[in-house]
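User: I'm putting together notes for a lab meeting next week and I want to include a structural view of one of the chains we've been expressing. I don't have a solved structure, so I'd like a prediction I can at least talk through. The sequence is below, exactly as it appears in our construct file.
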Amino acid sequence: QVQLVESGGGLVQAGGSLRLSCSASGSIFSILVMGWYRQAPGKQRELVATITSSGSTNYADSVKGRATVSRDNDKNTVTLQMNSVKPEDTGVYYCYADLRPTPARWSRDYWGQGTQVTVSS
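Assistant: Thanks for the context. Below is the predicted structure for the 121-residue chain, given as structure tokens.
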């Protein structure tokens, strides 16, 4: 079994910063991509940022210049730092991993339970 456990989030004032962390545990052979998605009320889940095992990053246009995603391959963790947060950053943030649990299995998507981020204006 694989688990992704998020930490961080909560209530943040507009203009402030948030930091989210996620740790993957369980049967893990390799993690190709880790990152963060979010879902605002009444909207579809959307990409925030991802990072590959080699460090290549991808950011949503809405967070470029404000967000930094990083990972520790040895610890199987990924962190999202976001500055100058806006009310539209409010939502449930989900940790994501494209992961191979064993050498004999193909990679698949895994998700955390989600952590609420609320940005007050």
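A couple of points you could mention at the meeting. Residues 66 and 83 are 5 Å apart (CA to CA). The mean pLDDT is 97.

User: Perfect, that's what I needed.
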